[in-house]
Prior knowledge:
5-stranded mixed sheet
Amino acid sequence: MSWWQAEANGFNYTNLTNMTLKLKQILTFFTCLLCATQVFSQSAQLTILPQIKLPNDSVISTKLIQSLNQFLTDKNENIKSSSVMDSNHYKRYADFFELLKNVEKSKRYNDDNFFRCYLKNIVLQPDNSFQVDLSYFGITKSNEIVHRLSISLLAKETKNNFVFYCPFEQNTKHWKTTKLDNITFHYQGSLNEAVAKDFEKYNITIANKLKLQPIQFDFYNCKDIQEVYKVLGIDYDISRNGEVRSGSFDITNKLFIAGTNTDQYKHDLTHGYFSLKFADSLRNWTAEEGYNIYTTDYWGESTETIFKYLNEYIIKNPTASLYDAFQKNIILKYPIPIKYPLSALLIRRVEKEFGFEKVLELISSGESDDNYFAILHKLIGLTKDNFDKIIKEEIKK
């Protein structure tokens, strides 16, 4: 029955008004849905399987999916100025969001859109935000499934859209906290105060050696790099596949998340200080890692243990060229390459004979090893011909 026929038959105007309002609501909903569909079809960013449960409120659901598609479109461009991003939050967790940049691309399969984004889950949180879980998968020509990345975001509703956040703060809000001078320690079990105090002491020592102010920072103790990623909201990343010990030190935001299963990470703290002292283009990684092995550790192995590995290699390979081993950078004992402990012995000799300033000269000699060797030749007369002799003398000390 048409509206004018209803009026002619004495149809109630109140009912007609109610019908009109309902019709407007329906039209509004489908207009939003059409907008979301258009964003989806234009960006082709997100795949939502029929089994995925979206929020019950259709208006919220549409708004959330539309915002998510906007986020996935903007993440490859200038995400920090996106309408679905909090700029201050981005500054603190830039590395997290940059991880998503161009994640669709695959060099191995020569395809800029090899990995597709799948909506895995949307879960309402106690504060009425939503946890949004995404996974990136690709399918090879032989129908093999390649899992690239699984990541979680927090989506908080605003008047016009949803804004997305790294869930790190939510994931660690119930951790225990202890502050010792410059370092605030965050942990789940108990704090080893002796280790923590020694770490703070080293923080001051390395700062003084470099003539810098000690850094004040938050230190989060995770059992391994996998847990580091999980508290950041990254459930799986193929580029971190199989890794155990590592961490993330955002020196700008004074945020140190360490996958060392201990209340210190002197190795990465040292790298952090050198990054304050020298531009990246000046830093020589062979010298820097050599200094770290000589003074701290490497992948959890102590200086003494690493030198023991090197000595065992020399004994088992009496005729092998250490200079060639350095140039080829063979693996001494996984994951320790031989170049760095060899460099550690040379750095140790330089510091003992010439002081820390000459060590800094080596560390700031540039990315290539050419200048590194030129300085060593000038200081201790190191050449290709006497390289093995000098190393074998140093390892006995």
